[in-house]
Design the sequence.
């Protein structure tokens, strides 16, 4: 059995009185792509945001159960939130580069974690490598001082991934990373994900079943806060064990 | 039925158009009135002597109409007020928009609005009985009626403008920027000064400019606490007189149609140009933000 990067145990999450996650047992294999699919409001984004504790920003959230990362429960009171988020990075549904230059976007992570040495050359070299790793260098090498928010959406999303890789995370959480993009850009991001898989563990939430089928190794299907079925992507799509999964993937629901 | 509808439409459109044009019309009218009255001064006084003259003795014989001390007084008091109000105002806005818990936020916001509602004469009065004697004792100066006292009072008057506009612009920063920063492991402070503030810097600048515009135009409170000495102030702790205070103090005593009377209108033109320039800058910054 593969090593697990993240596992949850009896995970429940409440927004006030509403229970958004119900007793979820989920595990994410290392250096694989795990996708979470399900209809709108099923809790898939909520589950993703459990892993880097982004839900902490929402008022009235209560969580019970365990989420283990590197043999520790990340919801233990002594967790260093900043370190956790550095190790578990996130790509959002709408590309959200900061309204500063492309260069400053890339080195943002270095600056906030005090990882850089004070030389411009070092930072520049770094920016080059990061942009190359997301296949943006050729397009942007002459525009490093341009405002990042003026790029195309695909470029913005890639830049957001580059910005994330800079802090050397171990896990990448992707919350519908292609839903704001056209099919060609989507294909390019998916291609990039396959490239990134070699070095990173990826969890992707997607609305798009075809995408889950194309990119992921393992898939979980969620409905109304429950993890209905979880297993190898191919098995889940060709021979689902649960009737509800079958309804969803054959298009009878959602 | 259709005809009545169309008539109503035209009527409403006409009314709106008239009120829109009226506001511009009034401003133009005011400017031309100022210009018409003020320009007579320059039959007898050279523009150079007016703007750069160091003595303002409007009722001596012969009179002198140099407004440099007044311009300097205005700049001194304004700069002092800006030094006090800008950091405080921006700081307060950041605290209210980004840090304060919701309940405290509401209390602070209404407190700031209350500050804006205090009439300037009341602030001037409070200044005379509190800041002026305090400044005299604390800095060991002969009188507390100084440019500094004016700056302190004006800072209080600029604060509400700066805080509310800066807070609005901080509030308009998309949540996704903050999420992006937090998700990278940034602290709250790093998020604020590396992402949120750069994202609304033009709005912040506009807040500062409009606050300063408010200060430049303020009359009553300044007149009460700055000592109104029309000589070149030797520093922030000596008495000074502003352009506005000069007009307010002297307009009642001057003979209509005299050079002194025209000189006060010329001061009005200078003041108009200064505030106009400040508002234009603020406007430019707000529009640049939208681009």
Sequence:
């Amino acid at each position: 059995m593969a090593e697990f990067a993240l596992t949850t145990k009896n995970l429940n999450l409440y927004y006030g009185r509403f229970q958004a996650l119900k007793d979820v047992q989920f595990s994410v294999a290392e250096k694989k792509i795990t996708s979470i699919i399900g209809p709108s409001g099923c809790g898939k984004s909520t589950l993703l945001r459990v892993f880097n504790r982004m839900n902490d920003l929402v008022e009235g959230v209560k969580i019970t159960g365990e989420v283990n990362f590197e043999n520790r429960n990340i919801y233990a009171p002594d967790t260093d939130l900043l370190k956790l988020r550095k190790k578990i990075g996130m790509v959002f549904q709408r590309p959200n580069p900061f309204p500063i230059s492309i260069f400053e976007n890339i080195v943002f992570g270095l600056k906030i974690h005090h990882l850089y040495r004070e030389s411009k050359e070092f930072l520049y070299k770094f920016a080059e490598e990061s942009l190359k790793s997301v296949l943006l260098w050729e397009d942007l090498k002459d525009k490093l001082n341009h405002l990042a928010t003026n790029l195309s959406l695909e470029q913005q999303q890639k830049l957001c991934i580059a910005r994330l890789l800079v802090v050397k995370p171990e896990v990448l959480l992707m919350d519908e990373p292609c839903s704001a993009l056209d099919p060609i850009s989507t294909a390019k991001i998916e291609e990039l994900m396959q490239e990134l898989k070699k070095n990173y563990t990826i969890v992707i939430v997607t609305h798009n079943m075809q995408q889950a089928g194309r990119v992921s190794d393992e898939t979980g299907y969620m409905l109304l806060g429950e993890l209905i079925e979880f297993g190898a992507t191919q098995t889940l799509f060709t021979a689902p064990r649960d009737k509800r999964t079958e309804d969803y993937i054959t298009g009878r629901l959602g | 039925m259709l005809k009545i509808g169309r008539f109503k439409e035209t009527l409403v459109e006409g009314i709106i158009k008239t009120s829109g044009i009226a506001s511009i019309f009034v401003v133009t009218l005011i400017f031309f009135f100022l210009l018409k009255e003020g320009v007579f001064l320059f039959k007898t006084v050279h523009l150079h002597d007016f703007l750069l003259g160091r003595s303002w003795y409007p009722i001596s014989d012969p009179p002198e109409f140099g407004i440099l001390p007044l311009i300097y007084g205005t700049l001194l008091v304004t700069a002092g007020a800006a030094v006090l109000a800008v950091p405080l105002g921006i700081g307060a806005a950041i605290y209210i928009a980004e840090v304060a818990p919701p309940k405290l936020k509401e209390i602070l916001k209404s407190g700031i609005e209350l500050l804006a509602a205090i009439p300037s004469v009341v602030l001037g009065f409070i200044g005379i009985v509190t800041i002026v004697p305090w400044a005299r004792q604390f800095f060991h100066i002969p009188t507390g009626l100084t440019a500094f006292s004016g700056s302190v009072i004006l800072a209080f008057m600029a604060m509400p403008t700066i805080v509310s506009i800066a807070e609005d612009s901080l509030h308009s920063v998309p949540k996704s920027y903050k999420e992006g920063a937090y998700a990278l492991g940034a602290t709250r402070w790093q998020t604020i000064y590396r992402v949120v503030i750069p994202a609304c810097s033009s709005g912040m600048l506009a807040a500062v400019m409009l606050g300063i515009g408010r200060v430049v135009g303020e009359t009553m409170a300044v007149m009460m606490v700055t000592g109104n000495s029309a000589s070149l102030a030797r520093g922030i702790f000596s008495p000074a007189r502003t352009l506005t205070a000069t007009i307010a103090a002297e307009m009642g005593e001057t003979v209509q149609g005299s050079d002194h009377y025209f000189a006060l209108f010329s001061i009005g033109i200078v003041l108009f140009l200064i505030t106009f320039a400040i508002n234009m800058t603020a406007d430019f910054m707000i529009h640049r933000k939208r681009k």
Remarks:
- Residues 4-249 of chain A form a domain with the Rossmann fold fold (CATH 3.40.50.300).
